[in-house]
Amino acid sequence: MLRRFLPKTGGGDVITSNNRDDAEQTPMIEVEHLHKVYGSTTAIRDVTFSVAPGEILGFLGPNGAGKTTTMRILTGYLPATEGTARVANFDVHRDSMAVRQRIGYLPESPPLYLEMTVASYLMFVARIKRVAAGDRSDRVTLAMQRCGLMEKRDVLIRKLSKGYRQRVGIAQAIVHDPPVIILDEPTSGLDPRQNNEVRHLIRGLAGDHTIILSTHILPEVSATCNRVAIINQGQIVATDSPEALMNRLSDNLSYEVELHGDRETGRQTLLGVPGVSVVEPLAQDQTVEGRQRWRVMTLAGQDPGAAIAAAVIHQGLELHELRRQRASLEAVFLNLTTEEPQIAEEAAAIAPASPEPEAQPPAPEP
User: Fold this and answer.
1) CATH hierarchy code of domain 20-244
2) Does 12 score more than 50 pLDDT?
């Protein structure tokens, strides 16, 4: 008989979204006033959020903001200095083994044995995750079915593409049917087709599982997540649905501007317009040679479109396009994580997190 871990009754009522339905159910994940200090360095401070059962939470933040530290505390890898974290109403510190049984974790580099077949590897993982002997075969088959791996079950993992290896990584995270899944950069290094396949797989897991998706790819969050938590300098600065976060910035307009002329002059001209908060360069791959494209974000309640056009012309630059746009999730992210107006090379570049040393999985038992 297949068994599922369920949260115990009771628990707190920490609510971090505006949805009243969330208040009527016990959160699957509760994080309250979490602090982590390394010597004189505070990695995270007063981190508080909750995730409802069946929800996908996108966990966003610049490099070094505290995403990995928070996930390591939730998975029992690190102790918190202060605060509490509960998974399925079990305390991460006091009930560490119970929490680990209820979590499936996919690190950025999946812990795979390349010389094992997909099926044998998942059977091994099911055994070390203490899936009952009578349930293992069914659990492995179900995990392979959900991850689209049945046709690869007897293939050596070293022969799989990166996209299929990511699927195997997700399969090992769900083979013991945990209520909570934590995914760290699950689409890192994948091509667009593989990205779409993995996103579809993650969406398919929602409902049966509560998912935290840590990523720096903003379109991935918009396409996959029900809610977003943004962390900056160790503190949660926003938690809500992507749509609600974008509506918060409805007064913060942005413009796409295409100019011809000296690049630095163009940047300084745009930054000097009253009401402009951030100027960042856009991709130049489809821009006519000699032209430059910028995204210009504005302060709340300001609409400096006419002033932008006047300033550009006054400087003797050629204005080829000025397009006003609705606030995007990227604009929300930059608004909440950028302290001073500056171009994207300094504040808007959301680069992949530096790879951490790859953890070696335990050797299979003879």
Assistant:
1) 3.40.50.300
2) no
pLDDT category at 320 given cuts 50, 70, 90 is: very high
pTM (predicted TM-score): 0.67
Q: Can you give the pLDDT at residue 138?
A: 97
Band of the pLDDT at 14, cuts 50, 70, 90?
Answer: very low
Assigned superfamily of 249-337: YebC, transcriptional regulation domain (3.30.70.980)
SS3 letters for the chain?
CCCCCCCCCCCCCCCCCCCHHHHHCCCCEEEEEEEEEECCEEEEEEEEEEECCCCEEEEECCCCCCHHHHHHHHCCCCCCCEEEEEECCEECCCCHHHHHHCEEEECCCCCCCCCCEHHHHHHHHHHHCCCCHHHHHHHHHHHHHHCCCHHHCCCEHHHCCHHHHHHHHHHHHHCCCCCEEEEECCCCCCCHHHHHHHHHHHHHHECCEEEEEECCCHHHHHHHCCEEEEEECCEEEEEECHHHHHHHCCCCCEEEEEEECCHHHHHHHHHCCCCEEEEEECCCCCCCCCEEEEEEEECCCCCCHHHHHHHHHHCCCEEEEEEEECCCHHHHHHHHHCCCCCCCCCCCCCCCCCCCCCCCCCCCCC
Domain spans, the chain: 20-244, 249-337
